[in-house]
Amino acid sequence: MANDMARNTSIYSRRESEARSYCRNMKAIFTEARGSELFDADGNRYIDFLAGCSSLNYGHNDPDMKAALIDHISGDGIAHGLDFHTDAKSAFLRAFEEIILAPRGMDYKVMMTGPTGTNAVEAAIKLARKVTGRRNVIAFTNGFHGMTMGALALTGNASKRGGAGTGSLSDVTHMPFEGSLGEDVDTLGLIDAMLSNPSSGIDAPAAFVFEPIQGEGGLNAASDAWMQGIEKIARKHGALLIVDDIQSGCGRAGTYFSFENAKIEPDMITQAKSLSGFGLPFAALLIKPEHDIWKPAEHNGTFRGNTHAFVTARVAMEKFWSDDAFEKAIAGKSVVLTTALGDIAALVEGASLKGRGLMQGVDVGSGDLAAAICARAYDLGLVIETSGAHDEVIKYLAPLTTSPQIMREGFNILAQATSDVTTDMKIAAE
Amino acid sequence: MANDMARNTSIYSRRESEARSYCRNMKAIFTEARGSELFDADGNRYIDFLAGCSSLNYGHNDPDMKAALIDHISGDGIAHGLDFHTDAKSAFLRAFEEIILAPRGMDYKVMMTGPTGTNAVEAAIKLARKVTGRRNVIAFTNGFHGMTMGALALTGNASKRGGAGTGSLSDVTHMPFEGSLGEDVDTLGLIDAMLSNPSSGIDAPAAFVFEPIQGEGGLNAASDAWMQGIEKIARKHGALLIVDDIQSGCGRAGTYFSFENAKIEPDMITQAKSLSGFGLPFAALLIKPEHDIWKPAEHNGTFRGNTHAFVTARVAMEKFWSDDAFEKAIAGKSVVLTTALGDIAALVEGASLKGRGLMQGVDVGSGDLAAAICARAYDLGLVIETSGAHDEVIKYLAPLTTSPQIMREGFNILAQATSDVTTDMKIAAE
Amino acid sequence: MANDMARNTSIYSRRESEARSYCRNMKAIFTEARGSELFDADGNRYIDFLAGCSSLNYGHNDPDMKAALIDHISGDGIAHGLDFHTDAKSAFLRAFEEIILAPRGMDYKVMMTGPTGTNAVEAAIKLARKVTGRRNVIAFTNGFHGMTMGALALTGNASKRGGAGTGSLSDVTHMPFEGSLGEDVDTLGLIDAMLSNPSSGIDAPAAFVFEPIQGEGGLNAASDAWMQGIEKIARKHGALLIVDDIQSGCGRAGTYFSFENAKIEPDMITQAKSLSGFGLPFAALLIKPEHDIWKPAEHNGTFRGNTHAFVTARVAMEKFWSDDAFEKAIAGKSVVLTTALGDIAALVEGASLKGRGLMQGVDVGSGDLAAAICARAYDLGLVIETSGAHDEVIKYLAPLTTSPQIMREGFNILAQATSDVTTDMKIAAE
Amino acid sequence: MANDMARNTSIYSRRESEARSYCRNMKAIFTEARGSELFDADGNRYIDFLAGCSSLNYGHNDPDMKAALIDHISGDGIAHGLDFHTDAKSAFLRAFEEIILAPRGMDYKVMMTGPTGTNAVEAAIKLARKVTGRRNVIAFTNGFHGMTMGALALTGNASKRGGAGTGSLSDVTHMPFEGSLGEDVDTLGLIDAMLSNPSSGIDAPAAFVFEPIQGEGGLNAASDAWMQGIEKIARKHGALLIVDDIQSGCGRAGTYFSFENAKIEPDMITQAKSLSGFGLPFAALLIKPEHDIWKPAEHNGTFRGNTHAFVTARVAMEKFWSDDAFEKAIAGKSVVLTTALGDIAALVEGASLKGRGLMQGVDVGSGDLAAAICARAYDLGLVIETSGAHDEVIKYLAPLTTSPQIMREGFNILAQATSDVTTDMKIAAE
Asked: What is the pTM of this model?
């Protein structure tokens, strides 16, 4: 009977808000997870190509982080420490300085915001407005930055924006992301022209905010040249450059920060999702020291600086980023991924590849088709999701640590699902 | 040397944002905590009358929650599950239904928002605007609801609001909280008069949002009559009633929800802080089913539904709320607290008591004095903080589980600190 | 046939917007007007107790202004001069300096805004925000300041505000006007308390804007003490004081500016309505020289500085304000008016008098009753209108120059109309 | 002495706001004007190529309008009639119906807004938001629509926008006008792409607002194809089409409405400037009957429906628009103008022609150069002004009725001035 209860999902329809989403199509009750595998209450195994939307870049329950966390809890380590000094926080900050910042020649202050990406984004735009005395912020088509009012104003998605009801999503100008108006349209030229014209009606911006690879927006990957162009335009017009690296960071794009190859120097960087390494709520805003003009507690939050996350995040840095082995492994897997997705794209007429690093996908041209393929894949034991303005992109976000074998297994399922669905459609069309 | 490093706080000035606050005055590096006691790297012991700003109502590292959490992690339970069904989530929802909702005759849907209070507040006002088609929200003087742009617009504190820089904090009307204009001013009459006058310029409100006891605003406790009055005014003017129970809830005010005695029926209730029981990031919005009109994913978030928090929150409910023993214990301690604070207030001319339940404090009339007393108390081994528009209230927020002995020990320190500071002042004044 | 056409109002229903209002109840086609009398196409005579809502304080077609205007036009004087220097403008400014400003010891710059009151109000709040660097403006219940978005945000009336549809009426805090919460509520204390509390959520204001007598809001006349109190609060909180004297100015309240007896010193004063003296479109903003920080053309408008209005406005000042005879005459008539309205109020149970000077009225307690009385008065040859949040005040706004004889004639009609309507109501009620 | 006073401009520096502009460079005190000629207090004559910024399309003091207006005033015709029916208003509406609307097959309601262009624009956007229930309005680079907060939000010019200080200019998206991003950029495609992308962040618009020829923005003339494209995009996205014809209308562009040749059907049309024919303040909003959902007085204003302007506007329509003679004359003069401006452009390296009809100009590439030429022209007896984001366009806006002889005389002065200035510059450069 306990088992029956464990498998009964009526509590969800009875008690959980209609806002719930993933569980509607993937109805399993998950109970355990290791690495790139999920297990449900009936013992079924699923390969995880979603990884908590890139919050589990190092896989589920990494044994080293797990050991450190259990050790911390067992010893009555601090669980909640507001923004007090704690040994766990000291160790996190030191590791971040030594392993992440110093080797990259980066000089940033770390702001512990509330432990969700949207909190970090809110802190960033508040600070940019304080620093510059300007109000307008430039965001981009297909950008996604969060659900609280300040971050939602930056977010492009009409359905998400609709959640604000009659509330005002103001003080933001939405500009076209690279490629969004067609391959041949010079978006940098357009943006610079609009801002350079004193009669354009676009107020001088406090900041530009963009994702190097748009995770929710369809895996649109900005080129290095475009990122450099935006940096240049921002500097020219006296605006700060904010990179939202929440989904694309922590190795997902091939380097720790997704923009490293572009050699841009953001004034602020938002981090969340895989920052804790273990899937725990954690977010931070990196701020160039000269812009760190916050007064004490001017932006605070009860859960800023999740102590459990400090513990696992430190282990993640030490384990994966102390040398370049992990980066090299990602590079290798990225090539494998491109090839595998290319094979899948070949099954769908007009399909094309999107993204880069281990943040790639297949644009199958239709949200219905993408949904059907993901649903079929789920039935075959693969958790994978869609992305894009029309949900038309099948998005690969497996843990970066996924073994070649499981990658291959997952690709096979995805190919099977794609083949099944397209075959069904052809039959239906005949 | 490792120990030296453990005691070195230079990493904070070098790497943590200027936004940090508590650690500026209470400089210890905390390493362990149990119940109502904190320990630092040098083995010093501190009594905790702050409890993570009411996030640790059941104390630090409660052994039962700790065991359950370690068990969950050890067994590779889900750490991050997006909004999938999980065994931990099912169990949490069932416990919430059986232990919290059903016995109180309450019917609410649970919305897992991002795991910070401000996210829950943002979800609430977005939904209220969607439901009513109205834009304006009524908030109150000295109210505190969070730091993201939507919640910050509701927040009264000028310094916090200043963090938004030039950003727009709009669509909110701030009305006087009970007592804020003086004991004899009828705030309910005033509010109803303003809203009933079609030429007042106050647009018809989507919602009223208030805290039954204003935690950051100075422990102003609304009377049952005032809460009933606001409910009546809200109903009269077609507005939803949203109770922000983030700091005052989970037993802090004497009952699970702080407004239970007033017998009001909020349309939405925000919860966070002690909801996880263990100090883990966790927040939820309770919604009357008829208002739960969210479309799937219309408001979402990566860390909505923190799975570790599901585990500990369930244990907290089972352990503390399955019968009325805990509630009775709180009632007893509240009486003790009132007496003890009265003794301390007697040491300061003009001081008065604020708040109710285990959320009481002493208004010493001056922020400087309150800060001096708290600083002295810290030196004597007691962590306690201030609150109020001028930080003029010394705020007791110890774990609800604090033993009578430790309560007494803490009161003695606080009395000593108050006496020391007032004596010093008298000497300085002579 | 020409006559038939002259009396045919079908063109209005066919071609004029549904926004039209006065002509719906008072359907005559007016053709001529002299002093306080209007004549329609059928030769019917109407006494005018409305005077273009106080735009015709010196009556219709004052012979001296008329002669000067015809002379100007006949001689090909400038009709439209943008903001060029013209002889007519020079003469206007000199007369304004010598007749209005100098004798009152007032030092103001004159800004020619677009020739409507709302344009002057918009200029005032824009400038106040520029001067102070603050955003929030304090306006009052029952205040009316215009229909363009900036002025409408200050306006209290819900129906007028509704005209903005989904547009944002932001950056304004609405506070209670004197008496609006009941005779015994200390609105000054309330306002100061809200602004003095750093956690009230009311942002520091750029300006206070009020009408000394609220024309559309129900003839609520602020006491000298209240105006002085608002001035004091404004100074205390670093806000500018803006007096909207559009309807109450130009002698209507007994003195040229309606606030003269209160001896307050506004930072800005808006003027329009009777400023031209002849009913021509004309508005101005008076600005304390130290606040006149406009850059050239930073606020402009095609019709700023209506040249025909310069001509008539100069004559009006010379004729009516060169000595104190006119002011004395107004004082005498005000006494007569109070008595006459008292007699009318005596006919309606619970009715009371409102306003002061020649801007008085009778609050009959119900918009329906007031409308019925005005409609009956119109049938008897008297043009008079209502005011107030519920249109419950019968408002006397006859030209200041109305002869005692015509005043008496009008009062008789109004008494008759009131008697007729209340008698009908009693019969209906039986 | 009286004469001295007449020539003394110290009253302006002493008493008129710093916002004044034209009179700073053109310092004459004008006293008389006839047709296309202005005369100052010293009897100097100036040719008027500015015409009140297109408010005097029929010249100064047209004898027929002048006679009708004197006749009206002499007979004590209504000067100020609120929105009562008057004989003058009836006649205006009938003439507008018969002479303007009917022959063009146009069906519009006429809304008498406050008598300035900005009031008409405010009414238009308020109504569009009411009709559609949407908030966002699309405006264009280099657009100019007025100075009140609603219209200013639509206006592109940064200096004008700066006049709002910290006030919020929200709910508007600024899109590129035809040609503003370079000749080869497809602005229609860009706009449609942004609006068609559900993740662009551009909220569904209530309306598009544009000027067929941007008067203040540099005489950018939209092609018929572009206007048709905007109409199509507006229809596709459920938005209303609002044409701001304030400066370009009343024959200025060659036809009564400037968009007639494009055969578009705006939902609303704003009119002002030359609508009265005589330079009197007057504005109107034309509304498709199905959108005329105003409630009575929902948008009103003291000076809505300037009665003197009704008189002159009727004469203007009867005299100039009863047959096609005037339109043909404009066509002829437009050809002459193009040739003449071409000759002037030939004097300046890189100069090019802008605009169409009798709203043309020369882009000399630099605001300083354009200002110098206009200043020199003024010294030689020609009033002419600049336009454009950088004030780089010398703008011809002479009365449409200007005789060929005076046109030629003015062109000669302009050519002389251009030659003088460019010669001086060459000498200075050597």
From this structure: 0.97
